[in-house]
Amino acid sequence: MNASDEHEGRPKRGRKRKFPGQSRSDRKRLLNNNQTHINTRGNVIQAKTFDENFVCSCTKQCTTSVPLRLRKRLFNQYWSIGNFEGRCAYLLRCVSQQLKKRSYSKTHLKNRQMTRKYTMFDIDVCKTALIRTLQIGQGRLDVALKKLSSESFVDGRGKAISGWNKFPSAKRQEVRNHISSFPRYVSHYTRNQTKSKFLHSSLNLAIMYRLYKEKFQNPVIQSYYKKVFYEDFNLRFKVPKKDKTPARSVIITLLDPKLPLELIVRFMKNGTKPILTVQTF
After folding, report:
1. Residue 267 pLDDT more than 60?
2. Three state DSSP letters for the chain
3. Which tens digits make up the pLDDT trace of 126-161?
4. Which of 86, 135, 170, 225 is such that its CA lies 20 to 30 A from the CA of 128?
5. How far lies 113's CA from each of 36, 102, 110, 119, 190, in Å?
6. 244 or 64: whose pLDDT is higher?
């Protein structure tokens, strides 16, 4: 048994997704590749398209200085990158920031200390022309410039560490080891219909958690024990009906040599003849 099979969680049976194929990772991938997707509120977000009818009316005459062919190429290059970090780096080619040259007030310090220069293919343009060409917002430019002064370009959204009450990884591994110590068997008649393995019918989560508390100091709460049981293991308690034969025998795999004596006695009282085999890693 490899590690991936050992800690493969039970398939979820809850309500189905309202929009199949629109998980959080799928939405992020579609957004990065400028494809139509559905956001978390259920609204359809259409793919961004290049605006050929935009005409800049500033003094720089941006749409005249930069031909339509070059502006369209800029749009296609930006949205073909496919990831957040790459688009940040691409924007920094078009936007530069430097200290402002003069201040008209000598007594009062203004909030704005920097000035920005916008270019498309080394041609000076205004901010409106750049954001309308790329179909982005002002905030996108601000984030790119903040990334320039930070330590990393990596997108840090959604990667925050959990709060102060998070259980350490050692505790999760402790619960895993305890659950793995219980004997389990593969259904002989239904093994082609399910990937689940079965614990003895006399067990349940309450009994397993009670044994866990007796064995370890500073145990985790029962809800966390249950969470690990369902997320990291594909185990079930119910005995398949096809396996209920008068003279039944269960092949028990011992992942922990210290099998609780209470369980062995319970197996024998229920008429189960355990065939003990030790599995090593």
Report:
1. no
2. CCHHHHCCCCCCCCCCCCCCCCCHHHHHHHHHCCCCEECCCCCEECCCCCCCCCCCCCCCCHHHHCCHHHHHHHHHHHHCCCCHHHHHHHHHHHEEEEECCCCCCCCCCCCCCEEEEEEECCEEECHHHHHHHHCCCHHHHHHHHHHHHCCCCCCCCCCCCCCCCCCCHHHHHHHHHHHHCCCCECCCCCCCCCCCEECCCCCCHHHHHHHHHHHCCCCCCHHHHHHHHHHHCCEECCCCHHHCCCCCEEEEEECCCCCCHHHHHHHHHCCCEEEEEECCC
3. 999 999 999 999 999 998 888 887 777 777 776 766
4. 86
5. 39, 10, 7, 20, 72
6. 64
Cα distance between residue 240 and residue 273, in whole Å: 17
- Predicted pLDDT of residue 188: 62
Closest CA to 236 of 265, 272, 206, 200: 200
Tokens for 132?
A: 């309308």
- Confidence (pTM): 0.57
How many CB atoms lie under 10 A from the CB of residue 181?
19
Structure tokens at 113: 């200390």
Single-letter amino acid, residue 128? T
What are the tens digits of pLDDT across the range 164-187? 677 888 999 999 999 999 888 776
CA distance 269 to 30: 58
